[in-house]
Specification:
single chain; alpha/beta; Aspartate Aminotransferase, domain 2; Aspartate Aminotransferase, domain 1; 2 domains; seven-stranded mixed sheet; five-stranded mixed sheet; globular
Length: 384
Amino acid sequence: MKKQDISFDTKIIHSGEPDPRIEGAANVPIFQSSTFEYSGQKSYDDLKYIRLNNTPNHIVLHEKLAILEGAERALVTSSGMSAITTSLLTFLKSGDHLLAHKTLYGGTADYVKHDLTEYGIEFDFIDAMDPSEWNAKLKSNTKVIYVETITNPLIEVAPLDEVVAFAKKHGLISMIDNTFASPALFCPVQLGFDISLHSATKFLNGHTDIVAGAIIGNEPHMSNINSKLNHLGGCLDPNACFLLHRGMKTLSLRIKRQCSNAMKIAIFLNDHEMVSHVNYPGLESSPSYQRAKELLCGFGGMLSFIVKGGIEEADKVMSKLKIPMCTASMGGVESLVTRPVQTSHSLLSDEELLESGIDKSLIRLAVGIESATDLINDLDQALS
């Protein structure tokens, strides 16, 4: 059987694994060694050293992630933000200009607004859902366009194929945060994106026990990012590599259950008299429905909704929930619920929230792999 004929479900288990296995072990051992014996490497970046992200624990992840997203190369990093900031700084310098979607993960949005400008890098936010306005924001010094596969926290899907076409037409580096979709639902590089980014803390790992990031793309972009990453020092610890490697092997099983659960919950919430609005691309009423259906292999395990009555009622509902934990993050086996303005988007001002279209009472639900019936019953009692 040819490798390209193997399904994603099989690749997630077997791709990138050492051949032959290390001492015959089914799992890659934890190589808790900061440095390794010199073996004639010609390049500094090839020296075996934890900070250079190239120990056996790193390599197996790099190869697996690259194969899963159909790219030439991948790197793991110390966090999702490390992956994002390193990639942006690789392709942006003083005097350059960035185009980014107006509704992003709060940490990314805050970095763009308040950190990149300190390096002399300009930016403009665009509505990624509306290609007609992109040209108006384009400048002669624009170098990068940045979007998310499924946006945080409004759970929208942009016309990603048009983003790729726009980037290629104008010679831009196209970057996409693929965290909410994961390679189980979308492979950006295969569509034509230059760089795919992940907070591997979330769906890739899936067990809420590490912080990690990933960068995926083709050469020569990845060599440039690798050199920048080595200088910035955003390396992932071998023990975290081991946990991520183990967690990824259940990605396909987890994401299928999370998508199924989220769809059932979205339908329930959409019909509930106490809910005024639901954001989920699997609902036919969603503006993102057709795009998600065409571009993705599923609608994802994330949704958000607004309860009638404002912030006070939203907090009451969350306090009454018995199964989901009220906290930040997502993508684990357990359901998590939060108001983004208290966690992931707490760095944004009232004006910035308004510009991004994020209501203060918005509740974001990261759906786990629990029983959908139990989750719906819990939501029902909390809303009632």
